[in-house]
Design goal:
single chain
């Protein structure tokens, strides 16, 4: 835009200048330093840091601008999608952005350490995109649980699996929160096929409460396990009493948490 007419820059806001330079991949460390005190609420660094089309600038050098005092104090949204982050620790530089609400880290190559470094942003952060980062797995869930203001979370194409999702869903359910969440495809597939895992909606005299298993007679334990084994042949319905109690308890606990996960993902009420 202003590259053809140098005087045109005089009529642009700081945000408009930042947007134009971002589109061209020209938000270098020097440029960010010059813009750091401007009225800018959104920055997109992906085109500048991208390995293929951008300048492939060192993430340490570029992101450290945010660690400087009184730097980008008005910034609410930071887009790093596709940026080449060389180390998880580079994320530490954005901890000093006091008003950051939306953070996009899709396909940046980060892992669990980077997610833990986001905890300092928990007061304001409500939108977080971690998609297409396979090194992020269930071990990152404790850090995500600290981000209690999240209204949107994407963990598509990450290493997060059902155990981690169950833990996340349990906390969200207990705290009565609403989170729009996008999950890995393999977890979607699992949830779509719950009816093949066990009996999803047992009716009396079958039980749904895991804590009631130890109160059942042996005949009732076998009856309950048989009902689930009719759905999934891998479920064993025989054994000693302690074995049957343990097996049914774990199965009903898994069913309970799977339904909570499905409720969270589909944004629907559930009865477990």
């Amino acid at each position: 835009m202003f590259l053809g007419d140098p005087l045109a820059i005089l009529h642009l806001t700081h945000q408009e200048i930042a947007n134009i330079l971002a589109d061209r991949g020209f938000l270098t460390e020097i440029v960010l330093t010059l813009l750091r005190g401007g009225n800018i609420d959104r920055l997109e660094l992906g085109p500048t840091m991208c390995e293929e089309d951008g300048l492939n600038l060192s993430s340490s050098n570029l992101l450290r601008v945010f660690s400087r005092p009184d730097c980008f104090m008005m910034l609410k949204e930071l887009v790093l999608n596709g940026a080449h982050l060389q180390r998880d620790f580079d994320i530490v530089h954005i901890q000093r952005l006091p008003h950051l609400e939306r953070l996009h880290l899709k396909a940046t190559g980060i892992g669990n350490e980077a997610v833990f470094l986001l905890v300092n942003l928990k007061e304001k952060l409500y939108h977080l995109d971690l998609a297409h980062n396979p090194k992020i797995n269930d071990d990152a869930i404790p850090a995500i649980l600290f981000l209690t203001n999240l209204a949107y979370l994407s963990i598509q194409a990450t290493g997060v699996d059902m155990p981690g999702l169950r833990r996340l869903a349990a906390a969200i359910y207990t705290e009565d929160r609403a989170v729009d969440i996008e999950i890995p495809f393999r977890c979607e597939k699992y949830l779509d096929n719950l009816h093949k895992q066990y009996l999803t909606n047992p009716v009396a005299p079958l039980i749904t409460d895991p804590s009631a298993c130890s109160l059942l007679s042996n005949a009732s334990l076998i009856r309950n396990l048989d009902a689930h084994a009719a759905i999934n042949s891998l479920i064993v319905s025989t054994g000693t009493r302690p074995e049957m109690i343990e097996r049914l308890t774990k199965l009903l606990e898994r069913r309970q948490m799977d339904l909570v996960v499905r409720s969270m993902v589909c944004a629907e009420a559930t009865e477990v």
